Amino acid sequence: EGKDRIIFATKEDHETPSSAELVADDPDDPYEEQGLILPNGDINWNCPCLGGMASGPCGEQFKSAFSCFHYSSEEIKGSDCVDQFRAMQECMQKYPDLYPQEDENDEKSSKDLEAASMEASAAKEEEGSS
């Protein structure tokens, strides 16, 4: 009646070896997850590891920057890709809801500055009172 089907197996059913044959993985299977880099060296834009960055409003800028970096042959890899990464960053800043900016460093630096200024004022008060 439902989605499940119950099958009863006897002891004799389990005594016979299975006749199932395993199919070897096909490296050219387009439906098989290949990882970030395909066997031919191309970038797999459908890789879940990209977190959907290759699609969306800044997908083309991301692809341009990532491709440039991947294929870069500069001494410092990707140093020839600054313009592409800048374009990607500018695009992402237009969509803060889709691409949240990590402000951990900004928050940390402002807390560090605040703590430093409090320490400096406490030091000045001690100097003035002695």
UniProtKB/TrEMBL annotation:
- Composition bias (Basic and acidic residues) maps to 1-16
What Pfam families does the annotation carry? CHCH
| Region described as Disordered: spans on this chain | 1-34, 96-130
Which InterPro entries would you find in this protein's record?
Answer: CHCH, CHCHD4
List UniProt keywords, sorted A-Z: Disulfide bond, Mitochondrion, Oxidoreductase, Protein transport, Redox-active center, Translocation, Transport
A single GO cellular-component term on record: mitochondrial intermembrane space
Q: Which Gene Ontology biological process is one annotated for this entry? A: protein import into mitochondrial intermembrane space
Mark out the compositionally biased spans (Acidic residues).
23-32
Entries under PROSITE patterns matching the protein: CHCH
Q: What is its main location?
A: mitochondrion
Q: Which residue range or ranges hold the CHCH domain?
A: 58-94
Cellular compartment(s)? Mitochondrion intermembrane space
Note the superkingdom of the native organism.
Answer: Eukaryota
Q: Which GO terms describe its molecular function?
A: protein-disulfide reductase activity
Write the protein's name: MIA40 protein
Q: Which source organism?
A: Cardinalis cardinalis (Northern cardinal)
> What gene makes this protein?
Chchd4
